[in-house]
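Same chain as my last thread, 504 residues:
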Amino acid sequence: MSTIRKEDFVQSVADAFQFISYYHPTDYITALTEAYKKEESPAAKDAMAQILINSRMCAEGHRPICQDTGIAIVFIKAGMDARWETDTTIEEMVNEGVRQAYTDPDNTLRFSVLDDPAGKRANTKDNTPAVTHVQLVPGDTVEVEVAAKGGGSENKSKFAMLLPNDDVVEWVLSQVPVMGAGWCPPGILSLGIGGTPEKAMLMAKWGMMEPINMQELKARGPSNHAEELRLELYEKVNALGIGAQGLGGLTTVLDVKVTDYPTHAASKPVALLPNCAATRHAHFVLDGSGPATLEPPSLDHWPELTLDFSTSRPLNLDTVTPEEVASLKAGDRVLLSGKLLTGRDAAHKRLVDMMEAGEPLPVDFKNRFIYYVGPVDPVRDEVVGPAGPTTSSRMDPYTAAMLEKAGLLGMVGKSERGPKATEAIKQNGAAYFIAVGGAAYLVAKAIRSAKVLAFPELGMEAIYEFEVKDMPVTCAVDATGNSLHKTGPAEWRQKIGKIPVVAA
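reply #2:
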């Protein structure tokens, strides 16, 4: 009988969350590298290159792959013969491990968890509590799987109670296009089919942490219906042409997972969860001999890549004019330099509330650009920690007011904009740019200084002013309202040409 000590368990959880913050699973890197080699869309290939370069930088520098270091999720299979040496619950030990990991001064992670979610939404300041699932199994060891799931991908989760004869493939193909690019493809789609609603969602969450093995499955062929579904969905989802970051291309998913469970004769629960380009998870087993040790991967798994900015157009944010912005076209690659404001959900709501109340704004936004970001706190000699873009559509309700009343000229974020925001961009002669989601550390290297200008109490959601130098972005919506997230996937879907459009 093994004895699992509290300090060993807590240390193992803390070490694992630090580990996954800067090491991609190597199966993901291998699969993405192969997809990069085969990609024919220049925009998608460039996005994949940035993700791969960022990943190698994080593996070398031990800093987060993505600024959204996620909500902590822990799956535990506890052997019924194991003895616990602890004065707290398993959930409390998990939370202590998460607290230690996220507040580690050598690699500070971002605190994204808010208490009172339907009320004040106050940050818990240490990313606790985690979401913990415990299962009792035979044996005397404790098996643990940890994952850090970002809001961009979690927000795109889908669930439906289908009728028994409804087609799962048809439903998935109706959902993926409306998910947009906020989940930062290329990644993994995981389905849970059967059981009850909560069982289906839980199976989908389990499945997304399985090894990427689609190419092996294609080589050997399916052995059951779940594997047949995996193959069919892999081909058909990629045929949608959504591509990396939603820019259009050959690869939207690297793998599709399907986990099923018996269900009621009248039911067919189906959950669909995406795992993003910052997929992060690790597995370890405790046997009573001490804390777990996770083996760092060899850098040989990462390709040696460089970025080519020869076709990128420089844009000086300190002198930019509406005429310059109007000259840009969707798809143009741009290097931003100068002073760049930041702000996301909480700051935008405050600003719009102030404008509606006739109050002066704390920052002058006239002819300025704003970056939708919640950066990680800096360590050592950093001016800011990893600072990749957040999902821009969350700012859509505030876009018209920020452009028309505050005088904003440009916005930087990730993924597509909705029709109202796109129309506001067009009506105001503004532009929207995207940085690559999943390349947060790479983006941060373009930031030369950072200072808080307003709302410091919002923490990572405060309004900063960044001084940037050659920050790589792509014009996604130009001043005419042309959207790259519409034209890119449409072009590549036509090129791939395998399946008809499925209505949402």
